[in-house]
HTH cro/C1-type domain-containing protein (Vibrio quintilis), 132 residues
Amino acid sequence: MIDPEMAERIRLIIREKGGYDQFSELTQINRQTLLRIATAKTEPKIGQVMAIATESGVDIKDIVYGKETNDFLQSLHESEDRSDFYSAISSLRKKMSDKMAQIELEQVEIQRDYDKRLQHLEKEIQALRESK
């Protein structure tokens, strides 16, 4: 069952954190999915709520269960003090992901080069055997 109050809290977070496009990049949640969550058209998955909590600095319990409106808005503003920390974590996560992708590509290239060299050596060995 979709909780319209939770959707409203998420909508407030998105607005406070720069809008759908910016928050989509931070959370790695599709913009349209964020919009559907914030307008109570779809129930967010736990991983999505966790990403929203992590990137906003708002406690996950406050997102799911809520607080009084003033308390919730206050926690949003307090989270701005932590936003640099969370932004740094988000940036590091992106850099690590990019580095892992680069390493995987390098591994593929190394394996390809190894296979070519091995194939070349096998041909040379075969040629030497045939020349005897």
Notes: Residues 4-68 form a domain with the 434 Repressor (Amino-terminal Domain) fold (CATH 1.10.260.40). The chain has a mean pLDDT of 85. The chain has two domains: 4-68, 80-131.
